[in-house]
């Protein structure tokens, strides 16, 4: 029996497709300065900001591997990574249009 991480699998598929946008769907719906404060959501981060937030402890727990994978995809040439709430159907359209009304967009500088 194998336990295959869905994030790892989709990342490899996205790389092979040379995708320009990858959307990670979570129950949290983005990256927050303070997870208990919905107003503290980062609408967008560039790669150095995301790395700094991991190093400073703002990005914690299960979000760290998602953001680290996002950073590796950006280094490989992907344009944008998004982290959105699985239960917010408007998030997908907003992210596809490059808007930051929902979730968090991570891009290269």
- Ends apart, CA distance between termini: 41 Å
Low-confidence parts: none
Q: Quick check: average pLDDT?
A: 88
Helix tally equals 4
Q: Count up the domains.
A: 1
Strands, total number: 6
Strand percentage? 15-25%
Main beta sheet strand tally, sense and closure = 4 strands, mixed
In CATH, the architecture is: 3-Layer(aba) Sandwich
Numbering strands along the chain, what is their spatial order in the largest sheet? 1-5-6-4
Helix content: 25-40%
CATH class: Alpha Beta
What is the approximate shape?
Answer: globular
- Over all CA atoms, what is the radius of gyration? 13 Å
Helices and strands, in order, run as HEEEEHHEHE
Describe the structure.
With 109 residues, this protein is an alpha/beta fold. The chain has a single domain, classed as Carbamate kinase (3-Layer(aba) Sandwich), CATH 3.40.1160.10. It is built from four helices and six strands, in the order H-E-E-E-E-H-H-E-H-E. The protein has a four-stranded mixed beta sheet, sandwiched between helices. A two-stranded antiparallel sheet has the order 2-3. A hairpin with an 8-residue loop joins strand 2 and strand 3. Helix 2 runs antiparallel to helix 3. The longest helix has 13 residues. The chain starts with 5 loop residues before the first helix and ends with a strand. The relative contact order is 0.24. The mean pLDDT is 88.
